[in-house]
Specification:
Shape: elongated
Number of domains: 4
CATH class of the largest domain: Alpha Beta
Distance between the termini: 41 Å
Strand order of the largest sheet: 2-1-3-4-5
Mean pLDDT: 84
Strand content: 5-15%
CATH topology of the largest domain: Rossmann fold
CATH architecture of the largest domain: 3-Layer(aba) Sandwich
Radius of gyration: 32 Å
CATH superfamily of the largest domain: P-loop containing nucleotide triphosphate hydrolases
Largest sheet: 5 strands, parallel
Number of strands: 12
Oligomer: single chain
Number of helices: 20
Helix content: 40-55%
Low-confidence stretches: 133-139, 392-400
Length: about 450
Amino acid sequence: MLRVLLVEDDADVRGAVEESLRQAGHDVTSVVDGQLGLEQILVTSFDLVISDIRLPRLGGLALFRKIREVSPRTAVILMTSFATADDAVSALKQGADDYLTKPFDMDELVIRVRGIAERKALVDELAAARAQLAGAADTEIIGASPAIMRLLDLVSTVAQSDAPVLVTGESGTGKELIARRLHMLSDRSTKPFVAVNCAAFPETLLEAELFGHERGAFTGAMKKRDGRFRVAHGGTLLLDEVAEIPLPAQAKLLRVLQEGTFEPLGSDVAVRVDVRIVSATHRNLKARIADGAFREDLYYRLNAINLEVPALRDRMSDLPLLVNHFLWRFSRTPDTLPDLTVNAWRALSTYPFMGNVRELAHAIQHAVLLSRGGTIGLEHLPDDIKRVATAGSAPGSREVRPLAAVLKQAEREHILLVLAVAQGGRTRAAELLGISRKNLWEKLKSHGISDSDIDDPVS
């Protein structure tokens, strides 16, 4: 719902606009001249002003300029006759949001106002997100949806324990951020947090990476090296992509979990460590067990507590926060973040994001670069998102048009058909259409239907 100020001296037009907007759910205040309109603007906050250009005491263009001075965020729609249409176009260049040429269809006005309401909702949502993100750390978990709040509550609960935690979820959901939060909330927060991607090392090197090695333990081992377990002593070790650990290393990892000791490669001296293990994977470990690729006993050791990170499509209410976070991260001037058009926002909010938050981050970075820091439109988003946003309902490439344009075209064609049935008689056509003759005249004007169209309705 919008708070609307209507400035119109014609009682019939004023009444019709008031009724249409109130039926659409908007709160409407109306005045009969520009001076009264300005007085209302000075004392009351309005989301939208709809004003005629020709007004007593203070004209609509002068009122528009005053509104831009005292209330720059208030949207303005100007109503104009054909004679003053050039003034309205000039006002658009100065920042007016829209204009309508009289006579106009009330449904068209309601559609235009709905578009402004959508833009306002988007701006408000993004502004709230920016306020919440002010000062947020790059590693902070962004979100306030029920799904993410339940997860964060569980993280806070288990952080003080030393029990092993298995963090699961699709790729790109932020599993490492959850692991870092566990560490930061634990008594180990002043000790090291060490992360190792178990899929990044070949089988022959992963054991050396985890447990260290002595000089000469294998070809290329020119000097002694501490492994990740020893580096993480007293703190937390994240085993990312834990499902990719080869079976020989799994056996050694199981011993560390059971006894807290291991031997570096090339040594028979046991090293004792105090490390909390957090594992992460996007794979189904039970399926890996069934395939013989993962030890069942190790699974139960790692999975004392399971934290599942929700997919982005299950927490879409967090999208404004996440979008603004990435706008802030990727913008050259984070103090003045770029805006998004309604079409760009609609595309983002309906896209499934199979790559989750990581894919969203890429999309925003892509858009910021292509828009050069300006307003982000649909054309600046990655091709996958644009394709989903513009895909037709039938195979092949079909033109996708706004619903208002489709309805307007259908109405025009139907009016021409009825006029043909009525052999051009306006009164009979109005009766068949179930509208007044005046309303029919307004629609003829709105659709640009001339006498030549009526004489030859199929042309």
